[in-house]
Write a structure and sequence with these properties.
single chain; mainly beta; 28 strands
């Protein structure tokens, strides 16, 4: 972790991991003061954020042994260097972990009892789970499926409350044979609105919806003096990353053609940007965005880039003042970054988890 005001760095290696164990999914849960880690040896580790001690270790294969096909598919994916895990959350009130698989399975795993259950969000094995995220108020979960279906799920019961097409068919059209391959979900801090950025028609499109799955409407496009409320048409130079300003109205995207951060209002119409590659990085030609996150109080924006030529990671933090963006912090990392975000409690603290199980 790094304090951005004092520039102090706090590093802790989690030594209880077996040799060659690699983190596949990491979630910083500051509300419950734990870090949730899913590892390559099919285990879940629950680590205290107070002293980084191991609170619990769960064998996924043992807990879900009743679903042998799910476990076999997950292990095969890991052997093929694919990640079968997309979502994890901790529910301390019932002492369990919710684990989401790319197959569309959502498993409830009890921590202290040999008890677990599993539901499937898909009825067709060809349909996969592409993205899943819980709302900040932990009332709902949003899921995006590869058949362009958007699911609204109850956080408490894990039942599907509502569903619709991800796409709104405005300036874009989903054909029956189309497959959604990339998507990202980002919530406004109060949990009332969320943005989904997804691939469609050889580009990427972002739509903001409320918790009834209604598309957010705002003045957008004039045609023959009639004003329509509509998002941008699919843009072929955007990545799937999206970040909703926690306490504001801006939404951030990454432009892969110009290496810039673009912004829109809640109507998802692009109207501002800044270039992100500093002089130090200007010679790099093959960088891709990995993380794009606002700080909790919104004046800072985190961008993590990976250089595909040497697999180095670059962390950049931008600060906004008087509508101008400036580079506040920049560092280079040789070890792959698995998770990186601003603290929701200490706004000047950056939390980083790398591939060698260091926080």
């Amino acid at each position: 972790m790094r304090n951005l005001l004092t520039n102090e760095i706090y590093t802790k290696t989690l030594s209880f991991f077996p040799n060659n164990s690699k983190p596949l999914l990491v979630e910083f849960d500051e509300i419950n003061e734990v870090i949730l880690i899913v590892s390559s040896e099919m285990k879940i580790y629950i680590v205290s954020t107070k002293d980084y001690s191991l609170q619990h270790s769960i064998d996924i294969e043992g807990a879900l042994s009743f679903n042998s096909s799910l476990m076999m598919n997950a292990m095969t994916a890991i052997e093929n260097k694919e990640n079968p895990f997309l979502f994890i959350t901790y529910k301390p009130e019932i002492d369990c972990i919710i684990l989401g698989f790319s197959s569309g399975d959502l498993s409830t795993i009890s921590i202290n009892e040999v008890q677990s259950s599993n539901i499937s969000l898909v009825s067709d094995e060809k349909v996969k789970l592409i993205a899943m995220k819980a709302s900040p108020n932990q009332e709902h979960i949003i899921a995006v499926l590869s058949n362009y279906t958007l699911l609204l799920i109850s956080y408490d019961t894990l039942s599907v409350i509502n569903k619709c097409s991800v796409d709104d068919n405005d300036l874009s059209k989903v054909n029956e044979s189309d497959i959604l391959k990339e998507a990202d979900i980002s919530f406004k801090q109060n949990g009332d609105l969320f943005a989904v950025n997804y691939n469609v028609n050889n580009g990427y499109k972002c739509i903001v919806r409320d918790m009834k799955l209604n598309v957010f409407k705002g003045p957008a496009r004039a045609d023959n003096k009639i004003v329509f409320s509509v998002a941008e048409a699919p843009l072929d130079y955007m990545s799937s990353l999206v970040s909703f300003q926690p306490n504001g109205s801006l939404i951030a995207f990454y432009n892969t053609k110009t290496n810039s951060v673009f912004f829109s209002e809640k109507n998802c119409l692009v109207h501002g940007h800044f270039n992100v590659l500093s002089h130090h990085l200007s010679s790099l030609k093959n960088v891709i965005p990995v993380f794009l996150r606002w700080s909790f109080d919104s004046p800072m924006l985190l961008l993590v880039l990976r250089n595909n030529d040497d697999n180095k990671y670059y962390i950049q933090i931008y600060h906004r003042s008087n509508y101008e963006w400036s580079l506040k912090y920049e560092s280079e990392r040789d070890i792959p970054i698995i998770e990186c975000k601003f603290s929701d409690i200490k706004s000047n603290e950056l939390m980083i988890y790398n591939n060698e199980n260091r926080v």
